[in-house]
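During the reporting period the student researcher (J.K.) took over the structure-prediction task from the postdoctoral fellow and processed the backlog of single-chain submissions. One of the processed entries is reproduced below for the supervisory committee.
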Amino acid sequence: MINKKKYKQAIDYAYKLHLNQKRKGTNIPYFFHLVSVSTLVIENNGTTEEIIAGLLHDAVEDQGGLKTLKYIKSKFGNKVAKIVEECSDSYATPKPPWIERKKLYIKKMSSKLQSSLLVSLCDKYHNASCIVNDHHRVGKKLWKRFNAKPKEIVWYYESLSESFNRHLKGYKVLKNNYASVVQEMKKLK
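J.K. obtained the following structure tokens:
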């Protein structure tokens, strides 16, 4: 059963942190991505910690680095902080090059908590779905939003799919749905 009070605190905190952030190349508030990821975790029987981490998975990477991680740990506990930390690919400002961060993220998949893999899968599934949907709306100009070439983005999402299949126990339907979206993405390049 979800701890509704803690979840509400996490929603408020995520909203405050990401208030002025938009999804790349859109006017969509970034907060809605966080809610979507959290909802996917809920729909896949996630724990309260996993659900909260779904809301906060980008907080450290995008909104304050290790200072934000320390606050998350004090407010939401060690497990939420660990999941958020493992879902982050960088704390540095400026961030290291895109390809370097993504290769390291994939390399570390085998040592991540199952909870972190679930939150990451929900995040990447929502991102991949948005890429496919946005491509149908705006076409190839979608790729200009990213700091990587289309083939690099597809490589990353495919590599993640392989890693989720190898390292995340269970969640067969979610992993298959993600793999299907990635296959659709491959056709867009």
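The committee noted the following: Residues 114-138 form the longest helix (25 residues).
J.K. will present the remaining backlog at the next meeting.
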